[in-house]
TrEMBL record:
This is Sucrose-6-phosphate hydrolase. SUPFAM superfamilies: Arabinanase/levansucrase/invertase (SSF75005), Concanavalin A-like lectins/glucanases (SSF49899). Its EC number is 3.2.1.26. It is found in: Cytoplasm. Its main location: cytoplasm. Belongs to the glycosyl hydrolase 32 family. InterPro entries: ConA-like_dom_sf, GH32_Enzymes, Glyco_hydro_32, Glyco_hydro_32_AS, Glyco_hydro_32_C, Glyco_hydro_32_N, Glyco_hydro_beta-prop_sf, Suc6P_hydrolase. One of its GO terms (molecular function) is beta-fructofuranosidase activity. It is an enzyme of class 3 (hydrolase). GO terms for cellular component: cytoplasm. It comes from Mesobacillus subterraneus.
Length: 496
């Protein structure tokens, strides 16, 4: 069949003279470029890929289209760090120049095998605007950092019978001396699934079947993207990104959403006994997360802090999106929690502390900034409604509000001049048990806020594109409230 052609399917090797440098110079002027989040110097970033702690360093690869703030020919860009804080940009790891990846090196994961880092990814093939196929491919990183594509790619050519060309995002794991590859897939009846291949050596693969996830997902779910599996606290966990979920109460209000599933995996019978499943992040801009084992075998997570099919204010500057900060996962009281990785404390520079007491219908400004960490301890809560306003100015603000009567927390970004994504609503919310004390931790980085409530029981990730003057931090309440706080200015972690 004839391969599909369109101008956006070109690689960095096809760039015109000085084209990439001009893109870099233009986007570098943006006031919204993050200081310590991984982001593209120019072009569009989306899924984190191939996350690994390998040979004494953290490696983060990510989907990258160089030429504009749009989805086109995806490369794997690459950054590494010794401490999860200071990131070095490296040459592009995967440029899709082979026939088996003719329309992009799509997402995948990494696994150390025999002292080498095996980087599994999907080679995207398109025959038209809709018709496509997929190959599962391998690149190998040596101890010295050299990356080469496997000579006999693809490892798996095409898709198994009964599935459309939407098969992608390999997650490879090892159990009892065998390797298993989980792939997001779409059945021919246009419903989502996870399929599994197996191997003795991580190279030669055979189709094992479809995972019976035993989830009561509606038929509207037409794709399961970016499956991730790990073991934590004697539980099996699957994190997956279903496409097609409909809003349900406080859940699933983004165009695409992420859930985690707790239970027990039987890889031999391809069954997963589900104990519980919940939405992973309650914010506006969180998708395609991937986890990996850190330096001390802790379970770490990065996610794409963005959302497909939405126009972002930075698009006009020819760059889009960033990754979340690294988060450490735990299971507490039967729920998966996310907390900022402890290494992030190394970013702290100047710190200030204070305490405020509010009365009925009052508010107080406790500081300002554009790249900081904020720790808040609310106590003596006599208010029905209280909260925090970030990026605050006379005309703007991102509002986090707690409601003791409803036992909910909500995040509202309608009060922003550069509001976007309104077709999916300006408010996100969650149930939350609110007593007389409450803990909130916030990371702000110019155009992103990540909010962790009660040690990651509830998390909101949201992009915000404020005016230059919108840097204030306010606390408000409709009744009595005490708040102790610490604010830490944070250092630059990655080049603009």
């Amino acid at each position: 069949m004839t391969r599909y052609t369109e101008p956006k399917y070109r690689t960095i090797f096809d760039a015109k003279e000085n084209e990439l440098e001009q893109l870099r110079e233009k986007s570098a002027k943006s006031p919204w470029k993050p200081a310590y989040h991984i982001h593209p110097q120019y072009g569009l970033i989306n899924d984190p890929n191939g996350l690994a702690y390998f040979n004494g360093e953290f490696h983060v690869f990510y989907q990258w289209y160089p030429f504009d703030a749009m989805h086109g020919m995806k490369h794997w860009a690459h950054a590494k760090s010794k401490d999860l804080v200071n990131w070095e940009r490296l040459p592009v790891a995967l440029v899709p120049v082979e026939d088996y990846e003719s329309h992009g090196a799509y997402s995948g994961a990494a696994l150390e095998v025999d002292g080498k880092l095996y980087m599994y990814y999907t080679g995207n093939i398109k025959y038209g605007p809709v018709e496509r196929s997929a190959n599962q491919c391998l690149a190998i990183m040596e101890q010295d950092g050299t990356i080469t594509k496997y000579d006999n790619n693809p490892l798996i050519e095409g898709v198994p019978e009964g599935y459309t060309g939407h098969v992608r995002d390999p997650k490879v794991l090892e159990k009892d001396g065998r390797y298993y590859m989980l792939l997001g897939a779409q059945r021919e009846n246009l419903t989502g699934a996870i399929i599994v291949y197996e191997s003795d050596n991580g190279i030669d693969w055979s189709f094992k079947g479809e995972l019976n996830l035993k989830l009561d997902l509606p038929d509207s779910v037409y794709m399961l993207e970016c499956p991730d599996y790990f073991e934590l606290n004697d539980k099996d966990v699957i994190v997956v990104s279903p496409q097609g979920l409909k809003p349900d109460g406080h859940d699933y209000h983004n165009i695409y959403n992420v859930i985690y599933v707790l239970g027990e995996l039987n890889i031999d019978t391809l069954t997963f006994e589900v104990e519980d499943y919940l939405e992973l992040d309650k914010g506006f801009d969180f998708y395609a997360p991937q986890t990996f084992a850190g330096k001390n075998n802790e379970r770490l997570l990065f996610a794409w802090a963005g959302m497909g099919e939405i126009d972002y204010p930075s698009d006009s500057e020819q760059w889009a999106h960033c990754l979340s900060i690294p988060r450490e996962l735990d299971i507490v009281n039967g729920k998966l929690t996310q907390k900022p990785a402890r290494e992030l404390e190394q970013l702290r520079k100047d710190s200030t502390a204070g305490e405020v007491d509010l009365e009925k219908g009052s508010s107080v400004t406790i500081g300002s900034g554009e790249q900081y960490e904020l720790e808040l301890d609310f106590s003596k809560v006599g208010s029905t409604q209280f909260g925090l306003e970030l990026f605050a100015s006379e005309n703007e603000g991102l509002v986090l509000e707690f409601d003791r009567m409803k036992q909910t927390v909500s995040l509202n970004r309608e009060k922003l001049a550069a509001a976007f994504g309104g077709e999916y609503g300006f408010v996100r919310s969650s149930e939350l048990q609110i007593g007389e004390t409450l803990k909130v931790q916030v990371f702000v980085d110019r155009s992103i806020a990540e909010i962790f409530i009660n040690d990651g029981e509830v998390v909101f990730t949201t992009r915000v594109f404020p005016k230059e003057e919108s840097k204030g931090i306010r606390i408000f309440a409709d009744g009595k409230l005490n708040c102790r706080y610490q604010k830490h200015e944070l250092a630059q972690g990655i080049s603009i």
